[in-house]
Amino acid sequence: MPPADEGSTTGGHEARSPGNQDRTSAARVISHEVEWLRWMPGLSILLRYETAWLGHDIVAGLVLATMLVPVGIAYAVASGLPGICGLYATIVPLLIYAVFGPSRILVLGPDSALAAVILGVVLPLSGGDPQRAVALGGMMALVSGTVLILAGLARLGFVTELLSKPIRYGYMNGIALAVLISQLPKLFGFSVESTGPLRDLWAIGGAILAGRTNWVALAIGLGTLATILLLRGSRRVPGILVAVVGATVLVGLFDLAERHNVSILGSLPQGLPGFAIPWIGVGDIVPVLIGGCAVAMVSFADTSVLSRAYAARTRTTVDPNQEMAGLGAANLATGFFQGFPISSSSSRTPVAEAAGARTQLTGIVGALAIALLLLVAPDLLRNLPTSALAAVVIASAIGLFEVADLKRIYQIQRWEFWLSVACFVGVAVFGAIPGIGLAIVIAIIEFLWDGWRPYSAVLGRPAGVEGYHDVTRYPEARRIPGLVLFRWDAPLFFANAELFCERVLAAVAESPTPVRCVVVAAAPVTSVDVTAADALTELDDALLAQGIELRFAELKDPVKDKLRRFGLFDRFGETRFFPTIDAAVSRYHGAT
Q1: Which of 10, 188, 214, 549 has the fewest beta carbons under 10 Å from its own?
Q2: Residue 155 maps to a domain
């Protein structure tokens, strides 16, 4: 046998060569890096950064920062925390999401949709103590972040799809109303003790009638709100920035804080956020856990929708599980740096896009610009009036209301419209946290209702129409004497098993001819549980007592497998199962 060529693997030389071992090791390292980068998609994008994007991202980041500052402060105050926390909750998430987030231009930070939820937890527990409020907000962020990361790792990104659109509309409309009501006292220049949205509205009306309105503060707030709303559609003029700067200059120029007792933000603490564990009391644990889970659900619902929308516009794909993990990482990090729960922003993300953002470097630039403000110019926003901040939040809350699509839903499916109204009333009457619980309960009931009380039909064969159809829709359909074809349009499980039996027996009783056989058209039946299997046994006994045989057509193989495990195949035998309705009908005709 001739010796193997030097380049051949026949003699094993290639497999043992140092060069091949180096290549194998290098391949393993690359594979490990790819797996590692899969959990850091933002970093992966930055590692492939193109120089042509740099100018766009820097300009967009600076433009974005002008909006992030007033909005962050406003939402912090609306959440019951010091205004500086809003900037901390802006800087940290932008930096973290730039590494772990899959979306190229999504902007994260404090959000008006979360403000009412956070306020509902922080305000009653903090008792007005700012330090305790910061700890509560931070712990809520930690809970929210942990829940989101675990859910992302468990690939539960689909869970928010369980909330139907009408229920989401009702909940968000309720949140918008709660946020708007919570800001009215600041807009009018006084304060009230919060006891719930509608009760707060009663207290606000009483304060106005009692003459507690600060008319100068109200004029500033209304002017700010009008400016924001008038410039909302402009892509070139940042309405929030113009309105807030104008209000701040006006207060400082005419010394309105001293002369007319207009409440202002005051000087911000100088310096960047430091690492701190947000310790809370034992009695605070349950409400903080509930609130943290609630904001996790709301923030991911909003973020997933916005992320998918911008992914479609940029012709990219976004993994919802990675989006959940990236949002969770941002929340977790901000909880350790005096922040509070955050979400994506449907108002700031378009600003970044309109300013030319290409990647998450835009968010990094915006975060660094805010950090620079805290280091060198903490007094820049000292004269910012709180009524102007309230106007910023109110403008955002107005944008949360959904009316047009609810009109469409009312016209096409009124019971879903009233579900939406029920969620709205729940949030408006009981507050954000109980309202979330109500929304979840309603969603579960809606999800299960079709399974509890599904549609069923007796089938016949209409003239000129292929196949077998519901005789209530086709009264002229020909029914086969002695045979009942019965269709069940749902999984068969414990909640509807008894109803299934009742409807089959009712169909037998209402048959125009004596019945010798019942065939269940089971194509829509996707599952059977133990309770339903036992009910089938009881139904079979009841039918056999009348001399009627129970058969099945079009039953799916996975469902058949379950029936085998339950022992029903041994009871019924293979001869009672048919691949199609036609096959079952042919067997019946052959037997008769």
Answers
A1: 10
A2: yes
Within this chain, do residues 193 and 328 fall inside the same structural domain, yes or no?
A: yes
| Cβ(68)–Cβ(348) below 8 Å | yes
C-alpha 39 chain-centroid distance: 21
pLDDT at 592 over 50: yes
Q: Are residues 430 and 474 in the same domain?
A: no
Cβ pair 236, 376 in contact under 8 A: no
Residues 419 and 492 both lie in one domain: no
What CATH number should be reported for the domain holding residue 584?
3.30.750.24
Q: What is the pLDDT of residues 352-370, one digit of tens each?
A: 776 678 888 999 999 999 9
The answer to whether residue 4 is domain-embedded is: no
Is 351 in the same domain as 290? Answer: yes
Kindly state the DSSP code that residue 81 receives in the 8-state scheme: S
Taking phi first (over 0 means left), then psi (-120 to 50 degrees means alpha), and beta for anything else, what does residue 266 get?
left
Residue 115, classified by CB atoms within 10 Å of its CB into exposed (0-12), middle (13-18) or buried (19+), is: buried
pTM for this prediction: 0.65
The whole-angstrom separation of Cα 298 and Cα 329 is 16
CA-wise closest residue to 57 among 65, 135, 177: 65
* Residue 347 in tokens: 């108002």
Q: What number of other Cβ atoms are within 10 A of residue 220's Cβ?
A: 28
Give the mean pLDDT of the chain.
Answer: 84
Please report whether residue 103 resides in a domain.
Answer: yes
* Alpha carbon distance 188, 158 (integer Å): 42
Residues 233-283 pLDDT 10s: 776 777 777 888 899 999 999 999 889 999 887 777 778 888 999 999 999
For residue 448, pLDDT beyond 80: no
Can you give the pLDDT at residue 288? Answer: 95
Give me the phi and psi of 109, to 5 degrees please: 160, -170
Task: Indicate the residue type of 447.
Answer: F
pLDDT at 327: 93
Q: Are 284 and 133 in contact (CB under 8 A)?
A: no
Residue 521's beta-bridge partner residues? Answer: 487, 553
In this structure, are residues 61 and 366 in contact, taking their beta carbons and an 8 Å threshold?
yes
DSSP state of 457: E
The answer to whether residues 110 and 129 belong to one domain is: yes
- Secondary structure element (H or E) that encloses residue 426, with its range: helix 414-430
Q: In this prediction, what percent of the chain has a pLDDT beyond 90?
A: 45
CA dihedral 78→84→86→89, nearest 10 degrees, is -150
